[in-house]
Amino acid sequence: xxxxxxxxxxxxxxxxxxxxxxxxxxxxxxxxxxxxxxxxxxxxxxxxxxxxxxxxxxxxxxxxxxxxxxxxxxxxxxxxxxxxxxxxxxxxxxxxxxxxxxxxxxxxxxxxxxxxxxxxxxxxxxxxxxxxxxxxxxxxxxxxxxxxxxxxxxxxxxxxxxxxxxxxxxxxxxxxxxx
Length: 179
Prior knowledge:
Blueprint: E1 6-10, H1 15-19, E2 26-35, H2 38-49, E3 62-64, H3 92-97, E4 102-105, H4 111-119, E5 123-126, H5 132-136, E6 139-146, E7 155-169
Parallel strand pairs: 1-2, 2-3, 3-4, 4-5
Antiparallel strand pairs: 2-7, 5-7, 6-7
């Protein structure tokens, strides 16, 4: 039986850390990640096309495809489960080309995104759908940094501690959905 490798990583992701990952590996991710879904991705691409500065530096960073539920009193964040990643596929290659190194979501990615992951030596992490309450327990802090008018889809800067993830697509293009 093959042993699952477990990696403890901290953002921003380094080329060395990414190169050590293989599809199927378990990861405990800590550091800063940014939440962004469809509407925020659309605005980021519009900003890129206009030559504007983005609300955060993409270099080495991770975007979590998340739209959290409201936090209960005393909680940092509400349920924090992933959304289906395929909806972000039209935007992902451009962000990878600008330095994004990781994405967290659920479900398979398109061939175009996998090719961009390989080209840019990045990684796609999969969070377990249905485990939104568990995922929220890894969030230490959350603050809106862009597009507050999008409400639940505003971009959040999240500080996370040992968020449990799996490598779905590694930097060589190995895809857990195809293995």
